[in-house]
Design brief:
145 residues, 3 strands, 39% helix
Length: 145
Amino acid sequence: MKLKIGMMLVILVVAMAAPYFIKGRDGKPLMAFGPEQPVDILSSEKTRQQYMKWQDENGLWHFGDEVPEGVVAQVVSVDTAANVIRSVKLPKKEPEEKAKADKESTPGIPLPMTVQPEQLSQMMDDAANVQQLMNDRTKQLDSIR
């Protein structure tokens, strides 16, 4: 058994290491230890864009490559390889609301009990009635056999 487990572990290690040594079509290993692309290639001049934005007399913002005559525009630079959208901040839930809801769902029950003490006598009577019903059914079944 130990031999089988040892062989399986050796096969697993070889299978995980093989892509680092097997050459691909381009002559390079299929996987490498370094990053796939250098960091400076990810964000380059090719991924950066500039555009103009200006506001008209009605207060509306316009965006474009060319600015109409007589309008003061702002130049905006954007790196298209980066995420420029801000994430939405969700409001924090107040734990007090949950605690209030929990308290309302279990009114007046003492901690170790699941039933209110006033209902205990009714439950005992119901259990006795069910026991009597089961005894009657058992007697009926015994009389049939």
